[in-house]
Amino acid sequence: MSIFDTGNPINRYTKVVPVFLTINNAYAPYAAAAIHSLTQHTDPKRYYRVIILHDGLSFINRIRLRSLVTRNVALQFKKMTRSLYLKAIVAYCTRRQKGAGDFFSSAVYYYRAFIPLLFPIYKKAVYIDSDVILRGDIGELFDTELGDKVLAAMVDPKVTVIPEFRDYVDKAVGVPHKEYVNSGVQVMDLKKMRKMKYLSIMIDLIRKFDADLVAPDQDYLNVILRGKILPLDGKWNAEPVEDLPRNVKLVHFNLFNKPWRYKNVPCEELFWDAAKGTGFTGDLRRQQEAFDAKKQKEDHVKVEALIKKAGRLAKCKEPLLKMEEAGVSKASKKS
Ligand SMILES: [Mn+2]
After folding, report:
1. What residue numbers bound the domain in which 101 lies?
2. Exposed end of the chain (fewer CB within 10 Å): N or C?
3. Mean pLDDT of 201-210
């Protein structure tokens, strides 16, 4: 029993819905809003365990996140240790950070690839980005029947509407854009991912091609699991829009128009309602105030640079990642 004990009855023998987030101190306030919204939309008959993979959270951030625990939602922190695999990824990200407009160069995005190996006690789990807000029971998402597929995720709407992204995905990633999924919300069959050696395939691809990509870990996921992904219903990874359809269960503030940066953006009230009571509201308001015209301009330049980079990479003659050349074809065929 710790000073944080809230009478939460979940122990390691309880059947839970495992939900993973991967964060650093910068993401903690958004993650708190996401987790808070999760706790407000649970099935009272079920138990949930939110597992936070991080690279060293401050004491105060851990206390604030810990305070989100409820009767049926437990919280667990797991600090990532510097394994050889993680070292390879951090080195890769550091090299790639030089690329202009690179949004996804942080190693934090790759932590989700470690979930199958780090948590052998689970057969299946849900992963969510920190920039999401729940409006429905995440247990329903967890219940998604995967059949013979390895993972469920939603076909990325941004890729379909931005021509540079569409061409980039088709040509540089080598996955048809109609199949290319967003990695922000995933239902993972951890058992199948362990069996197919998902993480070591990713490391092999990184080592072999050292590719400069637009959405690295998401691109790897799409290449490695091509043909093994179940398309997820859009209500589980919806864009923030005015007049959000009633059936939407999860809103994803993906890429642009983050409510903690901009005022008067779609679904901002959903975010601020969820942030209320997390202990981070003051931080978030100050962040928004500090995000002045200059920073907004920089943000737009970054987005434009990312789209330009996609357009440039789309001119490649052949895909940047080739599974059959990475010495991984054997491992993946075996699965
Ligand atoms: Mn996201």
Report:
1. 17-334
2. N
3. 94
